[in-house]
Amino acid sequence: MILGRPERGRPPVEPVTLKILVAGGFGVGKTTLVGAVSEIRPLRTEELLTEAGRPVDDLSGVEGKHTTTVAMDFGRITLREGLVLYLFGTPGQERFWFMWDELSEGALGAVVLADTRRLEDCFAAVDYFERRGIPFTVGVNCFDGAPRYPADAVRHALDLDHRVPVLMCDARDRESVKEVLIGVVRHAMAHSSTRRGAVTT
């Protein structure tokens, strides 16, 4: 091999591409997470919050937020040679939830991003993935000044199955986010193996 090119006569190996969703409540850090880890300039569909949206957009705890995702965020990260993740951030407000079905098509798994100050905001995402059998990991975004709780306490508060990973993270930090994404892939693979075993027995 010369300068990273494949050997003559051998076709280049196409990388395995996996689709991961990033979901959670309004203002929990989904756009930040995708932007922190994406190796390409992320595609964002953000619009300014308006006075007309105030009756339906609860800004409690996120008073400094001025924009919102109205369709999706998109990014890409190579976890290792031959393995690429496509990240799709879902919109957080209820009026945009109709898009989740389309975004979740073909997804390997999901990250449900949570804020300990507003855990109830991620109930809808947890319920969505549980009902559709899509494996997910809960990433607790450790905001500055937010109360810190052990993973088991968060699991209990969200009434999660004991097999669902709960990981602490900083949505601004690439390495922290990368660990969460690795956790999603591992959990999804274990979930798939369990299902295949159940089918064959």
What does this structure look like?
There is one protein chain. This protein has 201 residues and is α/β, with parallel strands linked by helices. The chain has 5 helices and 7 strands. The chain has helices at residues 30-37, 100-104, 123-132, 151-157, 174-200, and strands at residues 16-24, 43-48, 67-80, 83-89, 109-114, 136-141, 166-169. Strands 2-3-4-1-5-6-7 form a 7-stranded mixed β-sheet, sandwiched between helices. Helix 3 (123-132) links the parallel strand 5 (109-114) and strand 6. The longest helix is centred in the C-terminal third of the chain and has 27 residues, at 174-200. The chain is globular and about 55 Å long. The model is unreliable at 48-57 (pLDDT under 50).
